[in-house]
Fold Alanyl-tRNA editing protein.
Amino acid sequence: MSVDLHGRTQRLEMSDQNLRAFEAVVLAATPEGIVLDRSAFYPGGGGQPADHGALVWQGVETRIVGARKGEDLCLIPAEGDPIPPAGTEVRAAVADERRSALMRTHSGLHVLCGVVFRDYGSLVTGGNMEPFSARMDFNLPEVPPGFKQTVEDACNAEIAAGRRIDVRVLPRAEAFALPDIIRTATNLVPEDAEQVRIVDIVGLDTQADGGTHVATTAQIGRIMVTKIESKGRGFRRLRIAISD
């Protein structure tokens, strides 16, 4: 299946991460979920939570508080809000402040991943994020002296370098021919995926990823490594905060 399609929905955010407003037609709708023919709402995945926003139709607003991926991509309406019936044309808006914060945070995690892999050879074993705060787990047996500050300084040097963040989609075989394309300890790319979306922080980090990102590292802001935790023998959790 194309990365730009989920069930019956064309995923607009995969090709235009800055798109915040669009028009669509409702294909199916219940209080549990609304399926559109096209959508720019990121539905969540890879540690990045789903977008919020709203649909406006016939003078009515339906707030969107999340999304669910299944056979179809379903937008989750706020409890008690009116539901547009199938066939309705809607104007949709993704909440910009939340999406922009998550884009900066997700790109910040890729900088962290790139620095730790480059300097310590450690793979990612897990991660999660909220706007401007995140965690990433690594298979890092030893924590060298000064590790926390060294990693923070290295991340911010990469941000200051203003590295370009490119996104492209490659056939599976071509994507997996790239060196170190999987930066997680377990390959999370579905076996039936014929195309793989690649996020490349040019000169630092190239990996398979389905989330949304800013255009350059300079747009991230500043990374602070707030805490390092032990998560069992040989595993470390790094918590970060993103600021202007």
